[in-house]
Design brief:
Number of strands: 11
């Protein structure tokens, strides 16, 4: 059974930084692309960033480009999201997700992900 556990969320001021982590277990982590999504109150879940299984390719939402960096450590079965220059509009629950199929690309489509974590709250205050 696959489990994804996010951590690292919290309260931060505008312009601050946070690093989210997502620890995975249950199947060969290094075989699967990983993604980060977020959901703000009253809004639909949206894509943030994704990384290919091989760490060689990443994809970002326009809102994340230049400010967020996704990375993974396959030896630790963990994916990270470094978030810098945070804005109030980044306030949301952040979810990590694991791709449905092995060897997949760093996809932005939620339907391409099979397993999801419970989420971690990120609040950016002014």
């Amino acid at each position: 059974q696959v489990q994804l556990v996010e951590s690292g969320g919290g309260l931060v001021q505008i312009g601050g930084s946070l690093r989210l982590s997502c620890a995975a277990s249950g199947r060969a982590f290094s075989n699967y692309a990983m993604g980060w999504f977020r959901q703000a109150p009253g809004k639909e879940r949206e894509f943030v960033a994704a990384i290919k299984w091989s760490e060689t390719s990443t994809t970002y939402a326009d809102s994340a480009k230049g400010r967020f960096t996704i990375s993974r450590d396959n030896a630790k079965n963990t994916v990270y999201l470094q978030m810098n220059s945070l804005k109030t509009e980044d306030t949301a629950v952040y979810f990590c997700a694991q791709a449905r199929t092995r060897w997949s690309i760093a996809t932005a489509l939620a339907d391409d992900y099979q397993y999801w974590g419970q989420g971690t709250q990120v609040t950016v205050s002014s």
